[in-house]
Amino acid sequence: MPQYWLLKTEPSDYSYADLNRDGKTVWDGVSNNFALKHLRTIKTGDLAFIYHTGKERSLVGIAEVLSDPYPDPKKNDPKLAVVDVKAREELPQSVSLAEVKADSEFSDFLLVRVSRLSVMPVTPPQWNRLLAMAGASQWRT
Fold first, then answer.
1. Is the pTM of the predicted complex or chain greater than 0.85?
2. Quick check: helix, strand or coil at residue 126?
3. How far, in Å, CA of 84 to CA of 8, rounded?
4. For the chain, which end, N or C, has fewer CB atoms within 10 Å of the first or last residue's CB respectively?
5. Which pairing describes strands 4-9 and 119-122: parallel, antiparallel, or unpaired?
């Protein structure tokens, strides 16, 4: 059974549309120790929401993890890890941070509690609720 994640990106740097166009990419640029701890537990086959930061602040798509974590080939630092991901589907409707914060079911969600974290786990109930909010029921657990 896959685990579920939320991966943040600044859309002006690399958006879900870019991932969709490229098909797959190396998910890199994570340097926060807490985010790296989460990234190192991601496994091949896991699913992730792609979240646009900046002015958008919303979930916009779903990606599938294609690799277990490995050292970032662009950096000379063994602590930095990356995973390969591929685009699976753009969400029918984006889910804003404001919508997530307004829903009491997400009071313990890291997106609400530690909003600057770039990689975070999503529990199956949170995953299903976010899918419902986005109108994407085919990805439910």
1. yes
2. helix
3. 14
4. N
5. antiparallel
Distance of alpha carbon 130 from alpha carbon 122, whole angstroms: 10
CA pair distance 132, 116, nearest whole angstrom: 24
What was the pLDDT predicted at 78?
Answer: 85
Give the tokens for residue 138: 């085919």
Amino acid identity for residue 45 in this structure: G
DSSP state of 29: -
Which position has the token pair 């979930």?
A: 59
Residue type at position 83 = V
pLDDT in tens, 33-69: 999 999 999 999 999 999 999 999 999 999 999 999 9
> What's the rounded Cα separation, in Å, for the pair 88 and 114?
26
Q: What angle do CA 58, 138, 114 make, to 5 degrees?
A: 30
122, containing H or E segment: strand 119-122
- Tell me the torsion sign for CA atoms 118, 119, 125, 127: positive
Instruction: State the sign of the Cα–Cα–Cα–Cα dihedral 109, 55, 9, 90.
Output: positive
What residue type is 76 in one-letter code?
N
Burial of 134 (0-12, 13-18, 19+ CB in 10 A): buried
